[in-house]
Amino acid sequence: MKRARLGVIVPAANHTRNIDHPGRIVWGLTERLAHVAQVDEFHPETARWVERMMGVPDITPASVEREGFGAQCLAGVVDVVLRHADSLDSIVIRFPEAGLHPGVQAKLADFFIHVLQLKGNT
């Protein structure tokens, strides 16, 4: 069974290594915001997770902008991870905490753990 991998890059003073390679998708803040602006609909589970983490019900690509920058950042991370967790060897999220309140950051970490456990990584 192929195991999903999820990498999370957090700020580091001397991080210069290029981590891009075939079979890996690397998403930063710019890519997450562009994703939210370009999709017509989110993964079926995205709205549930955003509501669980931020208390914003029924989020859609059409409504996320009026909810604010944090909701856009969170929806972008959650939707990308849910869409691609099964199809790639690994997903790397650069600075997943960007634009998020500390309480939401902790819930996002719980989301990452949940996804990894669902994919057979404990």
Structural category: alpha/beta
State the order of secondary-structure elements, H for helix, E for strand.
EEHHHHEH
Indicate the low-confidence ranges by residue numbers.
none
- Sheet having the most strands: 3 strands, parallel
Roughly how many Å apart are the termini?
14 Å
Number of strands: 3
Main sheet strand line-up: 1-3-2
Radius of gyration: 14 Å
The pLDDT mean sits at 80
- Tally of discrete structural domains: 1
| Individual helix count | 5
Helix content: 40-55%
Percentage of β-strand residues: 5-15%
Describe this structure in words.
- This protein is of the alpha/beta class.
- It has five helices and three strands.
- It has helices at 29-38, 46-54, 64-67, 69-84, 102-118, and strands at 5-9, 24-27, 90-94.
- A three-stranded parallel beta sheet has the order 1-3-2.
- The mean pLDDT is 80.
What keyword list fits this structure?
3-stranded parallel β-sheet, 122 residues, alpha/beta
How do the strands and helices of this protein lay out in sequence?
Elements: E1 5-9, E2 24-27, H1 29-38, H2 46-54, H3 64-67, H4 69-84, E3 90-94, H5 102-118
Parallel strand pairs: 1-3, 2-3
Structure described in brief:
By secondary structure, the protein is of the alpha/beta class. 46% of the residues lie in helices and 11% in strands.
